[in-house]
Amino acid sequence: MDSTIVTLTSKLFWLQGYHQVKLLNGINLEQGYSSECLIHFGQGHDAKFADSISTMIPENGIGIMDRGFASWEFLDQMSLTQTKFVVRIKNNMKTELDHDRYRVVWFCDLESRSEFRLATNVNEMSDEEISDTYRHRWQIEVLWKFLKMHLKLDRLITKNVNGVSIQIYMLLITYLILLLIEIPAFYGSELLDKFRYLQLELSRRCSMVHWSYDLLPETLV
Questions:
Q1: The pLDDT value given to residue 58
Q2: Within a 10 A sphere around the Cβ of 118, how many other Cβ atoms?
Q3: CB within 8 Å of 148: residues ≥ 6 apart
Q4: CA-to-CA dists, residue 173 to 5, 25, 28, 102, 193, angstroms
């Protein structure tokens, strides 16, 4: 789970008091699909959206989050709803807590000389398994990079709140289509390979209609 910020540069948004839009989303690591998303206009700390986050985490799933969600109030609320989590907490946070609700796992990255402290309410996993689980959080960063760099999430073309929401949902639908689509193995199997393949094929056709006939020849009947 993580969030990303898109700056709103239009004065039409400024007149409404909006200078940014926050997109909070997650990736299901088993299926590779994104979870439901929260679109929030204005300021707001990630930890304030605990109610929405708990609905994004599937039953028996574990929410993996970074320091933006690190507050004891957030962890208490997640524990009360019996939502499993692994959250990196800030190094200056006091660790006097209720150990019946969660524990803190410490580990160090010797290569970067960084210390990590992870708060979790998962008791079935060892400290080493918890630290390995946290490393999977990087997948959400890869998602944001793909959406912004290749699907142009950082370039909002609409000038109203409803239009921005529609554009964000369209990009997420495009992302899901790229996950599901199959292309010739010659072109590769990564998400970017699929995206470039579609760009290549679309540039060869004069219209989307002709391209769809190649994929679904039965529509010609």
A1: 82
A2: 23
A3: 4, 154
A4: 19, 13, 15, 36, 17
Report phi then psi at 82, rounded to 5. 60, 35
Output DSSP code: residue 27: B
Between helix 191-204 and helix 161-180 the angle, nearest 10°, is 100
Q: For the whole model, what pTM was predicted?
A: 0.76
Q: What radius of gyration, in Å, describes the C-alpha atoms of the chain?
A: 21
> In 3-state terms, what secondary structure has residue 6?
strand
Exposed / middle / buried, residue 151 (Cβ in 10 Å: 0-12, 13-18, 19+): middle
Helix axes of 208-215 and 191-204: crossing angle, nearest 10 degrees: 120
Residue pLDDT, tens place only, 203-213: 776 565 665 66
73: DSSP letter = H
| Cα–Cα nearest to 53, from 29, 30, 84 | 84
So what's the pLDDT on residue 29?
Answer: 81
Long-range contacts of 168-171 (CB under 8 A, 24+ apart): 168/21, 168/23, 168/37, 168/39, 169/37, 171/147
Asked whether the beta carbons of 133 and 64 are under 8 A apart, the reply is yes
Mean pLDDT of 149-156: 85
Q: Where are the alpha helices (DSSP H) in the chain?
A: 11-15, 50-56, 72-80, 127-135, 138-149, 161-180, 191-204, 208-215
∠ Cα 147 150 155 (to 5°): 70
pLDDT band of 86, cuts 50, 70, 90: very high
